[in-house]
Amino acid sequence: MTSLLLLLLGLVGLWRGTLWAVRGAVELSERYGISQGFVGLAILAIGTDLPELVVAVSASIEQIRGTEASGMIVGSALGSVVAQGTLVLGVAGLFGYLPVARRMVKRDGTTLLLGVVLAAAVAADGLITRGEGLVLFLVYGVYFVALWQAEWSGEAAEEDTLAAAPFSASRSIVLGVAVVLVSAHFVVTGGVALAESLGVSQTLLAVILVGLGTSLPELALSIRAATERRAALSVGNVIGSNIFDLLVPIGVGAMLHPLLVERTTVSFDLPALSVATVLLLVLLLRRRGLQRWEAVVLLGFYLAYAGIRVGLG
């Protein structure tokens, strides 16, 4: 019971802390006139993925201390990618049609597919080494630099931005990051203890519960963007977040300590993630956006995935 409460408290802290940090980051970006597309693909994506990154670092520290926590790192990252690409956009799409620029889907969707292929390749043998982790991290670095260059060359110009936050940006960022750091420790320690007490794998717990919990910031921001008719933020946030999740938390975690990958992750989670990614991109490209019935399809996919995954154990 204590481990469950610790885990739930940590997830709530990750959610609130991330929203505070992102609010401050968006306010700063507005002051410098940064476009909506870049805010969604980079600033919001990185900000809302603070939970996955800090969970990965915290779990790696536990591994260095002698506690096996690979399942928390890999499971939370992959679980977040599946949840964000299906559940988050599915829910956001229920609020109305989500138009999206075909150019963005092709450019960033290609990077997302590359991330899926790389993650599957390094995990195929059941071990992600430090060198493989470095490769994942460097690929994201190249992608971020390309986004930055496109932003300042004017390719990503947008008219709309989010409304400015009502309080100090710096205070919001510092407070949010501090809460995320403390909460991530609760998630890792509570999650590992709960998995042991229930006799289930860390990866299962991380994929379903932690992955879903760390996707709450993306869900909140995507719903807000959808209801305010800012689809570039809603879709861009999810695509950018998924690219980040596949390359950075797993990459950083592996660089700190090699990661063991469970057989079920290789045989089911990664193939399911690949199908979910292709499905999402096809739906976005069909009519340059996401319609309500397509959002329902994505929601159905997530429910089927979660049900089968729990059954596999």
Can you describe this structure?
This protein has helices spanning 2-31, 36-48, 50-64, 70-93, 102-123, 130-152, 169-198, 202-213, 216-227, 231-256, 263-286, 292-312; strands at 98-99, 127-128, 259-260, 289-290. By secondary structure, it is mainly alpha-helical. The chain is globular and about 45 Å long. It starts with a helix and ends with a helix. The model is unreliable at 156-167 (pLDDT under 50).
What is the ordering of alpha helices and beta strands? HHHHEHEHHHHHEHEH
Structural class: mainly alpha
Count of β-strands: 4
> What is the count of distinct domains?
1
Rounded to the nearest angstrom, the distance between the terminal CA atoms is 21 Å
Descriptive key words:
313 residues, mainly alpha, A middle domain of Talin 1, 12 helices
Write a concise synopsis of the structure shown.
The protein is mainly α and about 325 residues long. The chain has helices spanning about 1-30, 35-50, 50-65, 70-95, 100-125, 130-150, 170-200, 200-215, 215-225, 230-255, 265-285, 290-310; strands at about 100, 125-130, 260, 290.
